[in-house]
Specification:
- The complex is a heterodimer of chains A (112) and B (115).
- Chain A is mainly β and 112 residues long.
- The radius of gyration of chain A is 13 Å and the shape is globular.
- In chain B, the strands form two sheets. A five-stranded mixed sheet of chain B has the order 1-9-8-3-4, with no helix packed on it. Chain B has a four-stranded antiparallel sheet with strand order 2-7-6-5, with no helix packed on it.
- Classes of the chains: A mainly beta (112), B mainly beta (115).
- At the A-B interface, strand 4, strand 5, strand 9 and strand 10 of A face strand 4 of B.
């Protein structure tokens, strides 16, 4: 079975640009969450979507937005990129009523 | 979600049991203990979770004290591939949890398994 897939795997952007990261959950999973992991720290929660609705938001600025599509895939958008946005962005999917989350390999974003 | 405290790092010899402690003294009655690990450059991987009873699966065992203020993750026969950062997370679990999607990661414990 395919796990959580994220694209692209690596990305380099310039300050001020915007970026779109994509995530495909495990088949049958309707919940997708996004996390940011800065080097040397644990992942930090950004968003959770379930059934195409936002169900949770972490302490991130409005430059960060996300959406979930009818096929339950998701996009994370970041506008006006800052150097501090350089991080590993992780997507996790889960099945409602189940407690374990399954993470993708992440997208490594470098802002220069 | 309750805060957890873990040692920064631990070492373990290959083939021996690795016992990773976690303190969660402010845990609430409806909060579960979860363990995830993250091998270098990969996404976190779910290991095990429990409420108050000890749990065991193919990867590990979870021992939760009777007062639920601390727990220990046990890898019974550690291998080099178990070298990773281990995260202990406490949150409301199950279908009724309003925060079921959110995991609050701390710094975790860097476990190094050496030959």
């Amino acid at each position: 079975d395919a796990g959580v897939t994220q694209s692209p795997t690596h990305l380099i952007k310039t300050r001020g640009q915007h970026v779109t990261l994509r995530c495909s959950p495990i088949s049958g999973h309707k919940s997708v969450s996004w996390y940011q992991q800065v080097l040397g720290q644990g992942p930090q929660f950004i968003f959770q979507y379930y059934e195409k609705e936002e169900r949770g938001r972490g302490n991130f600025p409005d430059r960060f937005s996300a959406r979930q599509f009818p096929n339950y895939s998701s996009e994370l958008n970041v506008n006006a990129l800052l150097l501090g946005d350089s991080a590993l962005y992780l997507c996790a999917s889960s099945s409602y009523g189940r407690d374990e989350a399954f993470f993708g390999q992440g997208t490594r974003l470098t802002v220069v | 979600d309750a805060k957890t405290t873990q040692p920064t790092s631990m070492d373990c010899a290959e083939g021996r049991a690795a016992n990773l402690p976690c303190n969660h003294s402010t845990i609430s009655g409806n909060e579960y203990v979860y363990w995830y690990r993250q091998i270098h450059s990969q996404g976190p991987q779910y290991i095990i979770h429990g409420l108050k009873n000890n749990e065991t699966n193919e990867m590990a065992s979870l021992i939760i004290t009777e007062d639920r203020k601390s727990s220990t993750l046990i890898l019974p026969h550690a291998t080099l591939r178990d070298t990773a950062v281990y995260y202990c997370i406490v949150r409301v679990g199950g279908a009724g949890g309003t925060s079921y999607g959110k995991l609050t990661f701390g710094q975790g414990t860097i476990l190094t398994v050496h030959p």
